[in-house]
Amino acid sequence: MDKHELQLVIEELHERYRTLNDGAVATYIPELAKSPPEHFGVAIATTDGRIFEAGDCDRPFTLQSVSKPLTFGMALEEFGHDRVLRHVSVEPSGDAFNSIELQNGTNRPHNPMINAGAISVTALLHSRFAGETSDRVLQRLSAAAGRRLTFDEAVYDSERRTGHRNRAIAHLLLNFGVVHEQAEHALDVYFRQCSILVTCRDLAVIAATLSNMGRNPLTQEQVYDVQSVRNMLSIMFTCGMYDYSGEWAYRVGVPAKSGVSGGVMAVVNRQLGIATYSPLLDARGNSCRGIEVCAELAARFGLHAFDCLNAGSRFLEVVL
Ligand code: DON
Q: Which of 11, 56, 298, 314 could form a disulfide linkage to 303, CB 3.0–4.6 angstroms apart?
């Protein structure tokens, strides 16, 4: 049988960007420095449950910051929008993901995609679920991926031992009363959520779950409610790629989230989830190959939300 056009395109992009060696593997978490720079996967999952893969789509890597919108969604469902927004704002910061700063006047972190905001969100979850919090996060993310995920104990331990910058952020939040007294315990959950292992294929399924209004297209489980998905995607659209978010929105035009282990997930609303994995990062902590592959897919299939062809029209033509 002839290969599907989408399969041919991701194979072509994988082949083209395999030789792009810009960027460097993250080293500030010692265990991540061991990531082989040549690992590279591209996967797409559609809302009707089809999966297309090229390259290293079965190699496990840690979610890192890609976990942030997913815990934000959990907090929204647990506490409601108003309560969550007392602990974190929804403004792009234009600053680095690990910057030690809070919003002027309100003393809240700028948004839940940067470390300060994600720690604040996790602390909120911890205030309700205490010792069960990391297992609850693991369960929800497993439901989004459609299979039982696990923690990478070595990466968790490595970040727990060296994450002093995040510790400083947690204590700054404690100083302003944004997080509760057990800031260290909450931080521990944050390190755990970052250490959840996924494959590029899992990440595409998670992205497709968001694309499919919160329903996992493989298991049909409703993992997030529709309203939280709307809020998660909005924040990914404006803040998901850190201080590259504006350029990403301009160039690629879909909600996305990156992580320092090299993952990028991008969501084409109501149509598909894209995932890339390549540990070579640019100075902002985004995967160099991931950015290029997503930009090229968006251009080829008209995926940009404000594409003149109408979002996704070319994709619909090809796939449906
Ligand atoms: O807190 C940290 O620094 C890491 N665990 C996660 C940061 C991250 O993934 C930023 N993404 N590009």
A: 298
Tell me the residue ranges of DSSP E strands in the chain. 41-46, 51-55, 61-62, 150-151, 196-198, 256-258, 263-268, 272-277
Q: What angle do CA 270, 272, 277 make, to 5 degrees?
A: 145
Q: Categorize the per-residue pLDDT at 315 as very low, low, confident or very high, splitting at 50, 70 and 90.
A: low
Strand, helix or coil at 246? helix
Measuring CA to CA, which residue among 128, 107, 121, 147 is closest to residue 65?
121
CB of 166 sitting under 6 A from ligand 1: yes
Terminal CA-CA length for the chain: 17
46-50, 80-84, 316-320: range with lowest mean pLDDT: 316-320
Q: Do 289 and 34 meet the contact criterion of CB atoms below 8 Å apart? A: no
Is the shortest distance between the CB of 65 and ligand 1 below 6 Å?
yes
Shortest-distance atom of ligand 1 to CA 281: 12
Does position 312 have pLDDT exceeding 80, yes or no?
A: no
**Cβ–ligand 1 contact at 259 (below 6 Å):** yes
Mean pLDDT of 107-130: 98
Q: How far is the CA of 191 from the centre of ligand 1 (A)?
A: 9
Of 315, 319, 148, the residue nearest 219 (C-alpha) = 148
Residues that are catalytic: 65, 68, 190, 242, 260
Task: Please tell me if the CB atom of residue 71 comes closer than 6 angstroms to any atom of ligand 1.
Answer: no
Q: What is the pLDDT of residue 308?
A: 76
Q: What is the pLDDT of residues 166-223, one digit of tens each?
A: 999 999 999 999 999 999 999 999 999 999 999 999 999 999 999 999 999 999 999 9
